[in-house]
Structures are given as C-alpha cells and as structure tokens.
Amino acid sequence: MVVFSPYIGQCHRAGVLSQRGNRTSVKLILMATTTSALGSKRSPVTATATGTRRKRPFLLDLYSTAVGKKYVMAISGIAMMGFVLFHMIGNLKMYMGATALNHYAEFLKELLYPIAPKGVVLWILRGGLITMLFLHLHAAWSLTRLNRFARAVKYQGPRDYQVAKFASRTMRWTGIIVLSYLIWHILDLTLGVVNTTGTNGEFVKGEVYQNVLNSLNRPVVAAFYVIANILLGIHLFHGAWSIFQSLGWNNPRFNNWRRGFATAFATIVVVGNVSFPIAVIAGIVK
Amino acid sequence: MSHLKNLTLKVWRQKSPADSGHFENYTIDEISDEASFLEMLDVLNEKLISDNKEAVVFDHDCREGICGTCSLMINGVAHGPQKATTTCQLHMRTFNSGDTIVVEPWRATAFPIIKDLMVDRSAFDRIIESGGFITAVTGGAPDANLIPIPKPVADAAMDSAACIGCGACVAACPNGAANLFTAAKISHLNYLPQGQSERFKRTEAMVETMDEYFGSCTNHGECSAACPKEISIDVIALMNKDYRASKFKNRKELSR
Questions:
Q1: In CATH, what is the architecture of A58-282?
Q2: What's the domain count of chain B?
C-alpha cells in the first residue's frame, strides 16, 4: 500500500484532539509545530489521519464544522427568503383597500381552520421562523468568531478587495441593521408599541390597514422602512446567490442563472416592500 | 530592455515567530525591468549582505511558477498585481520607476510567520495527510489507460490538480479560509475513478482537518481571483456537496 504522508507531528496530534471550543490551544500548538519543525524532531510516519473527533449526534456533528454551519445558514436563509417573499406578496393587498388587507390578516389566523384551531398554524409558522432566525444568527455569530480568529493578526499594509462585491463584504452589517429593523417592525405593526407615538390614531389590533397608514405617514418612519428594505435587498443579493455555493448546488447548466436569480429575487422583494411607504407618503394609499 | 529607478520597498521584517515585527524601508536605485520580483529581492539581499546587514528571508524554490513555494503580499495583493501569476513569475516591468512597493508575508493564524516573509504552511500538509491521497497496490506498473477516464473528467481533475498549494487563497480570503485549497485537492481525486473508493472518507477527513486550522467561506471569490492557477470556486461547491454526502453515508449505504 502506498500512501503519501510525510509525517504527522506529535504536536499536531494534540492539535487535532483539542476541541473546537478551545481555539486558543490550537493556536499555541501551531506555534509549537513551527518550533519543533525547526528543531527537526519528528515522530514516526503514520499512514492515516490520527485525529478523532468527539462523537456527537448526527445533526450536531454536521453543525460542528464550518461547512455544516454554512448549510444551516443556507437552509435557514431559504426559509426566511420564503417568508419575506410571501410577506411582500400578501402586503400587496394594501393596494386593494382596507377590507382586502384586513381580511387577508384575518385569513392568516384562520390558516387550515377548522382542521386546526384559529391562530395555531400561524403560531407554528412563527415558531419555525423564529427558530430559523435563531439558527441563522447563531451560525453567523460563530462563523464570524471563527473567521476573526483565523486571521488574528491583520495585514499591516494597506489592502483592498479584488473581486468581492459590496454586498458580500457588508453581510454582517446589513444583517445586523435588518435584524434591528425587524424588531422595530414587530413593535410597530404587530404589537403596536411604537405605533401610537406621533400619530393621530390609536393602534387597534386587527385594523391592519389603518395601523399601516398611521405608521408610514410619519416621514422618518417611512424613510427608515425604505432604507432597511434596500439593505435587506443588498443582503439578499449576496445571500440568495451564496446559497447555491453553500449547499453545493453547482452545475454548469444553471450556474449562469444563479446570479440572475439572486438579483431578480432581491429586486422583486425590495421594489414591493419599498413601494408601500412611498405609496403612503405620496398619498396613493389613503 | 529598460531599467526602473528609485524603487522604495517597504518590507516586513520579523526576527522570530514571537517577535512583533515591523516594516522597514529599502531603496532599489536601479533594476532591470526583466528582473523577476524575487530577483529584485536577491539584489536587495546582496546589497544588505555587503552592508553587513541581515538578508530578508523569503520562500522560493523553482522560480518557474510550478512549485508553490513563493508567496508574498505585494501591495496588498497575493502574488502581486498580475493575474494568474506567482511572485517568482512576476516581473519588474509590472511596476514603474519611483513606485513604493509594500511586501508583507501571508497572514493567517494557521500560517505562523517563521521569519520576515517566510511562513509555516504545514497546516496544508495536515490537510493532505488526512485524505489527500489514493491508496493503490504496489507492484508492477499498470498498463497505461487501463482505467478509462472520459476526457471532460480528466480535464476537470487536471484543473483542480493545477493547485500548487502556495496558500494565496488563504492569504487573500478575508476570513483566512482554506476552502479553495482543500476543495481543489478533494475534487482532484474525487473526480477520478481512482479516487472513488475513499471519496467520502477523504472528504470528511480533509474538511474536518481544515476546520481545525482555518476560517470559513463567505463566497467572496477573493481566493479564486488570487489563485495563480485560476482555480474556480466551483470546486468549493463540489466539496460542500461531497461533505454533506459523507455525513449521510454509513458503511452499509456506501456499498449501494
């Protein structure tokens, strides 16, 4: 049997065995490998990898690697993309008047009624979305930490990106701003906590149409909605393309379509969402 | 042939892995535009040695762009400004008289600096050791073309095999990820019939070893832009796909 393997250092073996959570030790061990290589102390040649990872349940095992976290990132991203698209399409009912929009809101609570009690399906969907959001955030957080660690000492000279797009470079920032917008949006139009301030009308649950008008008639709020949705579009412009890479969906037959899909998806969502505050401010929707 | 005059070099000097290091300025009064970047550093070193100063340490070997030993961030770009070119094949005609050139080593936690511009890239060896090989029976040499390989498959495998393991992908990646290197090495073998028996074991082992040292991919494409062999990020998608498959397969299913 022929196997190409120069050597596996003793230090490395310790490095492999040390767990993910303890990154610092890996760093120290890397330094040790350097010095031991210089001192030319090598342990015997072995043919196969000596590393053994801690046994975890299947899904956790997958999630423990960066590639697995990207899978979670992509799948939760798809789920939220589905939400954001249908949310936009549903809101188009606004252009059909108060009755249509309010009826649509009522319909969401009656999903699958009478098989399921009123509101139950909606809460299941909400639960799923909250889980997806949490997973998306956790994967982003832990990967960011990992990436910061992977280049603990930055380049000291000036340096710029060669090909990376603005969207991919700003994913963390657009993500954080969209998240804070999302929280505010729920406080504004679901719970109504921040809707009454600065408007004439009171927030009334179920009076969706009037609540939206009250909120978006505040110019600052309307501007915030526009900006946040453009940032969401930038996030989607990279995310919707990135999904294909992360999930390993790469095929020369459709590779050229991936960019087009992401651009179209982001554009449709942004145009739809941005149209609402503009329509209210412009007085098209009264 | 013409000459470049009055080049200012800002070179990273670092005595040892533990030293904090700093940039030092050097002047090259005159250099032929036909000199390679490394030859220009040789000229600098000869001058330093004759001045009784310590020469700048940098990695180099074949100087014909095929070994993957040379490195260097030149003006913030891995292997310098010329596309699909290693530092050793980069010529001074790419620069102009009076330029200031910043020369820095690769920076990644997995690539500790040994001295000056030289880094330890043995983390790549750890990845290769964990699965970047095929197991073959020794003995008499097999007949050529004994295993039929379709031309497109051979071409795709060759494109991946072009990886020289220089580490420019890691250096250029804003996250210090080695996905392009690992994916090139995995796909090179996973495309070919000879690599099939260990396909999923290899992918799982190499991805998880990579994970011990490097950052994660955010699909910027910086690695591919920096790669002197222009390896496409398509191989990263292939690696992701095979990694998923390796996690789902178990011993019994592998036989199906």
A1: Up-down Bundle (1.20)
A2: 2
- The predicted-structure confidence for A180-199, as pLDDT tens digits, reads as follows 999 999 999 999 888 876 66
Question: Minimal CA–CA distance to B95: which of B145, B140, B156, B31?
Answer: B31
Within 10 A of B229 (CB to CB), how many other CB atoms are there?
19
- What does the alpha-carbon distance between residue B183 and residue B201 come to, in Å, rounded to a whole number? 14
Same domain? For B54 and B87 the reply is yes
Largest CA distance in chain A: 82
Backbone φ and ψ of B79, nearest 5°: 65, 20
Of A58, A150, A164, the CB nearest to B221: A164
Beta bridge partners of A133: none
Could you list the beta-strand ranges (E) of B87-186: 100-104, 113-115, 118-119
Asked whether residue B172 falls in the same domain as residue B220, the answer is yes
CATH number, domain of B66, equals 3.10.20.30
Residue of B220, B233, B246 to mutate, testing the A interface (most A Cβ within 10 Å of its Cβ): B220
Paired sense of beta strands B113-115 and B77-78, if any:
unpaired
Residues B35-93: tens digit of each pLDDT:
999 999 999 999 999 999 999 999 999 999 999 999 999 999 999 999 999 999 999 99
- The residues spanned by each domain of chain A are 1-54, 58-282
d(CA A274, CA B160): 44
Measured CA to CA, the distance from residue B238 to residue B190 in angstroms comes to 9
* Alpha carbons A187 and A184: distance in angstroms, whole number: 5
- C-beta separation of B12 from B104 below 8 A: yes
The answer to whether A162 contacts chain B (CB < 8 Å) is yes
Q: Name the residue facing B176 among A3, A38, A151 (closest C-beta).
A: A151
* Same domain for B250 and B138: yes
Same-domain status, B76 and B131: no
B12, B16, B212: best mutation site toward chain A, by most A Cβ within 10 Å?
A: B212
CA distance A145 to chain B (A): 9
Phi, psi of B91 (to 5 degrees): -105, 155
A–B CB contacts, 8 A cutoff, strictly below: 202
Domain that holds residue B226: 122-254
- Beta-bridge partner residues of B22: B13
* Beta carbons of B174 and A169 less than 8 Å apart: yes
pLDDT tens, position by position, A229-248? 999 999 999 999 999 999 99
Question: What is the domain-level CATH number for residue B135?
Answer: 1.10.1060.10
Closest partner residue to B120 (CB to CB) among A27, A37, A147 is A37
Between CA A23 and CA A181, with CA A66 as vertex, the angle to 5 degrees is: 100
Residue A70 confidence class, pLDDT cut points 50, 70, 90 = very high
Q: What is the pLDDT of residues A97-135, one digit of tens each?
A: 999 999 999 999 999 999 999 999 999 999 999 999 999
